[in-house]
Amino acid sequence: MKKSGSSCAAPGAALGKLMSDKSKKSQKSAAKVLGLTKNAASQLLKLQKSQKKTGYGIRVEVSSGGCAGFQYFLDFAKVPDKTDIVSEEQGFKLFIDPTSAEFLKGTELDYVETLEMSGFQFNNPNVSHSCHCGKSVC
């Protein structure tokens, strides 16, 4: 989501503060951090099958980088990391590290297809602005 008139804190500082504020203790289950639309779930299922990753979970991360300060990362993962928050949406297990969970609270992952592009889209109410590529946020 784009919001005007806002500026980002230095990405490294914000990420570092969140990491230092989080305890290292395992959080195997937690309240909903990320939702999936039916379109996103359908596309993830197609990708799982084509990549022979049936039964794998979806790792979702927010990391420093990109032109706006942070970027999203999606991948298939067989098992969660020790400290991951694990939830289930639309039949998929989601593995989210505690730091990324802070950025993702209330976010919905969608899959969109238009004449100009197709791909996964994070509808994140916590984003102050994003770049035009749609992959980098602040």
Question: Could you give the distance between the termini?
Answer: 10 Å
Q: How much helical structure, as a percent, in the residues?
A: 10-25%
Query: What's the alpha carbon Rg, rounded to whole Å?
Result: 15 Å
- Relevant CATH superfamily: HesB-like domain
Total individual domains: 1
CATH topology grouping: Hypothetical Protein Aq_1857, Chain: A
Structure class: alpha/beta
CATH architecture designation: Sandwich
The geometry reads as globular
Question: What is the topology, as strand order, of the major beta sheet?
Answer: 4-5-2-3-8
Largest sheet: 5 strands, mixed
Total strands: the figure is: 8
The overall pLDDT average reads 79
Low-pLDDT residue spans: 1-30
What is the helix/strand order?
HEHEEEEHEEE
Output the CATH class name. Mainly Beta
